[in-house]
């Protein structure tokens, strides 16, 4: 029987990245992510996999974002005991993210039990902190480009994709087939991380399509941030930036420092209100080998790339609440990036009704999230058991996207020495995947298909 791929997530959506590669008696799971966004997607996290977790020989992670790694503790809880292969940067971030994700699961279950908001009695977490610790014990870090056997007879390597710290595309060989999984590809010529490394060839390619139907705006990527800071100053109000703790928080901090150094914005008080983002920023600083020449130049001259002049780290809940008593103008960077939970929700509940407030959206806003509603112009938002009026100015900072756009995806593909025999588009909403597929057919003349959720294809 030929090797086969089964698309267990991130097919027709951008979350829940899980792709099963089988052949030669081996089973390797490419990514192990949680579903996020719409409730119907989140509910899928509770459904059992269509195979016994104990039958999976290994997991290969492209990077640490929760939609690519967050299901690991549940997989371990269900019996998986094999190695989890990833880069060293990804391993450092997993030590931050998985315990935090488990803590949130336990908190949600405790809240549901205390307030009777679950139909399950008692409500249980999807996984626990103990499950997260057992998952971390299975992590096997490797260097970029290092050859390793993901499973018996499955040589593999992980190569930098430039998306976030430690992010990689994966190359695996199974029964003579060379399989490349893009993970999430980063952008070219943007600050902090090196550009995505090219993949020379593949028989089978799994390619993300998150931004397959759009091109990032040309020009100054920090212009939106500078404009948002200027409005906060003019209004003497707060600038609230919902950030993903991994990648986006560091990008915004880096750009704020650059804007201050260039005299384009005043040095306002900046509060990084996310314990996870604080730890992730330390991880970014500890991996200069992944930084681009510009970031290394800042470091070699004695500067701190991720430290605006008046940066404060808000670690505790009490410190976060104390921000309520401070007058603007100032800047709050708080998790999470889609405003579905975390400390940013409390800041938004307080500040959205104030027309002096500016909210800058700097990340992808999945369908069904509060961030998407704000982006689309909602005038009121449900949160924390009530309805909140939206009188704040909602702005967009699309220049901070860490995802390759359509043209950058095509640029990466053009570096292949030969077209893959088969290309499957994953990790994209239907319109994005369809658009990218059409461009690949028209501009590259490659065979390309869009992965269907649950489909199993021989390769």
Strand line-up of the largest beta sheet: 6-5-4-3-2-1-22
Number of helices: 14
Overall mean pLDDT stands at 95
- Largest sheet at a glance? 7 strands, mixed
Describe, in plain words, how this protein is organized in 3D:
This protein has 459 residues and is an alpha/beta fold. The protein contains 14 helices and 22 strands. It folds into two domains: 4-214 and 402-458, Ribonuclease Z/Hydroxyacylglutathione hydrolase-like (Metallo-beta-lactamase, Chain A); 223-400, Rossmann fold (3-Layer(aba) Sandwich), CATH 3.40.50. The strands form four sheets. Strands 6-5-4-3-2-1-22 form a seven-stranded mixed beta sheet. The termini are close together.
What's the SSE blueprint?
Elements: E1 4-7, E2 19-23, E3 26-30, H1 39-42, E4 58-60, H2 66-69, H3 72-77, E5 84-87, H4 88-115, H5 129-136, E6 139-142, E7 148-151, E8 154-160, E9 168-174, E10 177-181, E11 204-208, H6 223-235, E12 238-242, H7 248-261, E13 270-273, H8 275-285, H9 293-300, E14 311-313, H10 317-322, E15 330-334, H11 343-351, E16 358-361, H12 370-375, E17 380-383, E18 386-389, E19 393-396, H13 406-413, E20 422-426, H14 430-444, E21 449-450, E22 456-458
Parallel strand pairs: 3-4, 4-5, 5-6, 10-11, 11-20, 12-15, 12-16, 13-14, 13-15, 16-19, 20-21
Antiparallel strand pairs: 1-2, 1-22, 2-3, 7-8, 8-9, 9-10, 17-18
């Amino acid at each position: 029987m030929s090797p086969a791929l089964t698309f267990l997530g991130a097919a027709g959506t951008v979350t829940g990245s899980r792709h099963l590669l089988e052949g030669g008696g081996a089973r390797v799971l490419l990514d192990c992510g949680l579903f996020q966004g719409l409730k119907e997607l989140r509910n899928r996290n509770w459904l059992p996999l269509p195979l016994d977790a104990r039958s999976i020989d290994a997991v290969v992670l492209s990077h640490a974002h929760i939609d690519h790694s967050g299901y690991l503790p549940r997989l371990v809880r269900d019996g998986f005991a094999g190695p989890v292969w990833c880069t060293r940067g990804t391993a450092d971030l997993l030590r931050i993210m998985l315990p935090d994700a488990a803590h949130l699961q336990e908190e949600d279950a405790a809240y549901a039990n205390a307030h009777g908001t679950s139909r399950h009695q008692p409500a249980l977490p999807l996984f626990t902190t103990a499950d997260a610790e057992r998952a971390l014990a299975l992590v096997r870090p490797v260097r970029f480009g290092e050859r390793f056997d993901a499973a018996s007879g499955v040589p593999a390597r992980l190569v930098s994709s430039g998306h976030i710290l430690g992010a990689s595309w994966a190359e695996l060989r199974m029964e003579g087939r060379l399989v490349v999984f893009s993970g999430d590809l980063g952008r070219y010529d943007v600050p902090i991380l090196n550009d995505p490394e090219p993949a020379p060839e593949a028989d089978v390619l799994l390619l993300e399509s998150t931004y397959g139907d759009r091109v990032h705006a040309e020009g100054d990527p920090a212009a939106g941030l500078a404009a948002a800071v200027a409005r906060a100053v003019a209004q003497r109000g707060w600038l609230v930036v919902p950030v993903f703790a991994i990648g986006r928080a560091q990008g915004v901090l880096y750009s704020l420092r650059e804007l201050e150094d260039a005299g384009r914005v005043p040095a306002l008080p900046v509060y990084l209100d996310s314990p996870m983002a604080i730890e992730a920023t330390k991880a970014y600083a500890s991996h200069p080998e992944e930084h681009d020449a510009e970031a290394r130049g800042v470091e070699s001259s004695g500067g701190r790339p991720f430290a605006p002049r008046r940066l404060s780290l808000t670690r505790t809940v009490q410190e976060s609440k104390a921000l309520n008593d401070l007058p603007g103008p100032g800047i709050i960077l708080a998790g999470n990036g889609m405003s579905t939970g975390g400390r940013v929700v409390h800041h938004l509940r307080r500040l959205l009704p104030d027309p002096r407030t500016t909210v800058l959206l700097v990340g992808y806003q999945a369908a069904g999230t509060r961030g998407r509603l704000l982006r689309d112009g909602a005038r009121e938002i449900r949160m924390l058991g009530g309805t909140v009026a939206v009188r704040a100015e909602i702005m967009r900072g699309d220049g901070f996207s860490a995802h390759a756009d359509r043209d950058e995806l095509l640029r990466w593909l053009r570096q292949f020495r030969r077209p893959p025999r088969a290309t499957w588009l994953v990790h994209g909403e239907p319109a994005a995947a369809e658009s990218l597929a059409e461009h690949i057919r028209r501009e590259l003349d490659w065979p390309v298909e869009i992965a269907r959720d649950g489909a199993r294809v021989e390769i």
